[in-house]
């Protein structure tokens, strides 16, 4: 009888397999008749990540989130949420996720606590846990002293917090928020951002949110996907996206007099990648070095005897990223002529 | 199951938090009962009748004294003397007076000679109720005057002896079954129709749909809650309406049980019907636009106001499938006739089958997605 052979492989622990993503979307398509609202979008969201879908109204963000949350049937492709295929196991997905739709879905006639209790029951949270969960989420959204107030008596910001509490009452792993701060004043908006950031830290939530606020996406999200006309046009961290735009700074300069040569003169300055005439004597200059271009501009104006009425230097924002990738402003599609960035030398169109 | 109860809980809490809604859905049918019960139940009084007397003989005087007696006692009409028949006719036409009696020349003489005496009555038959009442009253007067003062020893005409099975049913009592049905219908229309679509439009349903609740739990939760609200409306109307109309049936436990059963199946039938109609509707204007026409379509063919036998065939066909017909018949059988379960068994059966069938058709039509 031979002794059992122990191989080295059996003793050595295999390296841990990479954790599966919390959300994985592959070539997802949504068609309404002949209209294609989402055109083959793919991305994945890691566990614990805050992922933003950024795009103008009508870009397909809400349709995407609705497909991932089982609200809208998927036409083609597939979405795996929390390890479950949305089309095949919708109930398992629903148990795993918390969803804050764009509309305020809490009942205005019921109190905050009653709303939470009803949703806890809808998620079959056992009676013993229900009270504790409600207390915890009220604490998390800072609404403890408003638990007995009817929702209709609360301010817009507080109602949005009730919605967030409602989405968390069953301790979901993945949290979907469809434009969570739309309609809120700036102070309430910042309060919601801080709250979401805290929730991510304390509850280790994976969050996917849609927004058309650049600042919101920049501040909250680890990664951002820019969606336009149903297509995913860019994906990366806010920093990566900003770096992908040619030119690190934007210089806005206003001359007191408009001449035809200004545009050509500005384009000849070192480091300038693009010049956009905004109005008479007002130019937006994209440059790799804001300080250098500023110096050159001042010298150029002095040598020509021209006066600068204003001059400002800004870093590239997500606004510039959005314009770069879509050729349009985010908030208002029909405004002025678009500010198109030329592609960086050597970049794929 | 718990999830279904959560939906019921939400709906009922919302209902009790909206006293205006609650009062409106109860008060409006009550108001209808009071107004219609009094408007339709009364007798004509104070009608203006012109008397054109071309005879002035003793029999004409007798006739006019009989008119004065009516004016002084039951007050159905009062008389106004006219000289000219044409003027009287014109005034009836223009509505200045309600009718005109013309006593022709030689009337008294023809009465005495038994030569077919006649009195003319001009009425405005565009108002059937008024003209009918005056005609009936005049007919009574004329018959009384025609009858011989000394009755013959042997009556030569056949008399009809009428036996009324139930105590006098005034119009308010008559309308009560219909009013209860109407209150339940309004409760369903508001609670099951309008609020359902409003919740859908406001996104409340979107909140439900992202939870693991099943289609069946959601549909049954909403319909059970709607039925409970309708039963509450029915109970309130039955108690208050019976007291107002002077019906003591609510103090009999057996009748109460029958009424409760009727209310439950009526609520299921109305809710099922409403849910089937609204299951695919998204526009909040639709139930509002439908409210009036649906009311007419269901209420009037029910036989609650006018007998089904008097309807044309097509309207009778609507009446056969109209749940109002069975619910009104059932409430009448219990409230006015104390007919027991035997009298309402087919109503109970129809309403239950109708309610369950409509729900079974509506459930697969209910979309679990947006």
Description:
The complex is a heterodimer of chains A (349) and B (370). With 349 residues, chain A is an alpha/beta fold. Chain A folds into two domains: 23-239, Rossmann fold, CATH 3.40.50.300; 244-326, 2-Layer Sandwich (Alpha-Beta Plaits), CATH 3.30.70. Helices cover 34% and strands 26% of the residues of chain A. Chain A contains twelve helices and 14 strands. Chain A has a six-stranded mixed beta sheet, with helices on both faces. In chain A, helix 4 runs parallel beside helix 6 and helix 6 (156-168) packs parallel to helix 7. Chain A is elongated, with a radius of gyration of 25 Å. Residues 1-10 and 331-349 of chain A have low confidence and may be disordered. Chain B contains 14 helices and four strands. Chain B is elongated. In chain B, helix 7 runs antiparallel to helix 11 and helix 9 (215-245) packs across helix 10 (253-278). Chain B folds into two domains: 2-39 and 170-365, no CATH class; 43-146, 3-Layer(aba) Sandwich (abc type-2 transporter like fold). Chain B starts with a helix and ends in a 5-residue tail after the last helix. The mean pLDDT of chain B is 87. With 370 residues, chain B is mostly helical. Chain B has a four-stranded mixed beta sheet, with helices on both faces. Classes of the chains: A alpha/beta (349), B mainly alpha (370). At the A-B interface, helix 3 and helix 4 of A face helix 1 and helix 8 of B.
Task: Give short descriptive properties of this protein.
heterodimer; A: 349 residues; alpha/beta; Rossmann fold; Alpha-Beta Plaits; 4-stranded antiparallel beta sheet; disordered N terminus; disordered C terminus; B: 370 residues; mainly alpha; abc type-2 transporter like fold; 2 domains; 4-stranded mixed beta sheet; elongated
């Amino acid at each position: 009888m031979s002794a059992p052979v122990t191989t080295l492989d059996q003793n050595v622990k295999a390296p841990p397999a990479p954790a599966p993503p919390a959300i994985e979307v592959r070539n997802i398509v949504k068609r309404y008749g002949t209209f294609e609202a989402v055109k083959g979008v793919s991305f994945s969201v890691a566990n614990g990540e805050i992922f933003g879908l950024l795009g103008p109204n009508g870009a397909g963000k809400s349709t995407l989130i609705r497909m991932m949350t089982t609200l809208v049937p998927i036409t083609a492709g597939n979405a795996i949420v929390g390890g479950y295929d949305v089309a095949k196991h919708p109930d398992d997905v629903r148990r795993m996720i918390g969803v804050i739709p764009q509309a305020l879905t809490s009942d205005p006639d019921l109190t905050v606590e009653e709303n939470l209790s009803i949703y806890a029951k809808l998620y079959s949270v056992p009676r013993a846990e229900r009270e504790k969960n409600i207390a915890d989420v009220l604490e998390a959204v800072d609404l403890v002293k408003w638990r007995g107030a009817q929702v209709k008596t609360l301010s817009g910001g507080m109602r949005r917090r009730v919605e967030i509490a409602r989405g968390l009452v069953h301790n979901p792993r993945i949290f979907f928020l469809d434009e969570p701060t739309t309609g809120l004043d700036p102070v309430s908006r910042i309060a919601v951002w801080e709250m979401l950031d805290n929730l991510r830290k304390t509850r280790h939530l994976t969050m996917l949110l849609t927004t058309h606020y650049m600042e919101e996406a920049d501040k909250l999200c680890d990664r951002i996907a820019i969606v336009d006309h149903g297509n995913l046009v860019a994906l990366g961290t806010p920093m990566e996206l900003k770096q992908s735009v040619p030119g690190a700074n934007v210089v806005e300069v206003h001359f007191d007099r408009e001449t035809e040569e200004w545009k050509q003169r500005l384009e000849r300055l070192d480091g300038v990648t693009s010049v956009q005439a905004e109005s008479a004597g007002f130019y937006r200059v994209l440059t790799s070095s804001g300080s250098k271009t500023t110096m050159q501009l001042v010298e150029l104006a002095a040598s020509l005897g021209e006066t600068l009425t204003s001059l400002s230097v800004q870093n590239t924002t997500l606004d510039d990223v959005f314009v770069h990738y879509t050729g349009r402003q985010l908030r208002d599609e029909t405004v002025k002529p678009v500010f198109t960035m030329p592609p960086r030398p050597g970049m794929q169109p | 199951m718990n999830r279904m109860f959560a939906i019921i809980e939400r709906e009922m809490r919302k209902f009790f938090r909206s006293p205006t809604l609650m009062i409106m859905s109860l008060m409006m049918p009550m108001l209808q009962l009071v107004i219609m019960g009094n408007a339709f139940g009364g007798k004509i009084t104070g009608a203006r009748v012109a008397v054109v007397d071309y005879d002035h003989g003793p029999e004409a005087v007798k006739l006019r004294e009989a008119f004065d007696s009516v004016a002084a006692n039951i007050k159905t009409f009062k008389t106004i003397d006219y000289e000219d028949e044409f003027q009287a006719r014109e005034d009836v036409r223009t509505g200045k007076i309600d009718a005109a009696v013309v006593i022709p020349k030689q009337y008294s003489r023809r009465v005495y000679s038994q030569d077919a005496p006649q009195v003319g009555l001009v009425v405005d038959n565009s108002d059937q109720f008024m003209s009918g009442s005056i005609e009936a009253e005049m007919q009574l007067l004329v018959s009384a005057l025609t009858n011989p003062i000394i009755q013959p020893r042997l009556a030569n005409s056949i008399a009809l002896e009428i036996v009324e099975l139930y105590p006098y049913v005034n119009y308010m009592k008559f309308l009560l079954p219909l009013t209860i049905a109407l209150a339940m219908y309004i409760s369903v229309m508001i609670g099951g129709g309008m609020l359902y679509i409003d919740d859908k439009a406001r996104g409340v349903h979107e909140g439900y749909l992202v939870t693991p609740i099943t289609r069946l739990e959601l549909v049954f939760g909403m319909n059970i809650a709607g039925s409970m609200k309708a039963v509450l409306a029915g109970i309130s109307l039955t108690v208050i309406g019976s007291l107002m109309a002077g019906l003591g049936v609510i103090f009999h436990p057996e009748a109460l049980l029958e009424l409760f059963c009727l209310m439950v199946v009526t609520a299921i039938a109305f809710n099922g019907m409403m849910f089937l109609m609204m299951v695919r509707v998204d526009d909040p204007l639709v139930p509002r636009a439908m409210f009036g026409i649906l009311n007419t379509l269901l209420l009037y063919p029910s036989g609650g106001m006018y007998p089904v036998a008097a309807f044309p065939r097509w309207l009778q066909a609507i009446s056969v499938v109209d749940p109002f017909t069975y619910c009104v018949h059932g409430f009448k059988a219990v409230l006015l006739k104390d007919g027991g379960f035997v009298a309402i068994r087919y109503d109970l059966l129809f309403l239950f089958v109708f309610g369950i069938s409509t729900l079974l058709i509506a459930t697969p039509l209910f979309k679990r997605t947006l």
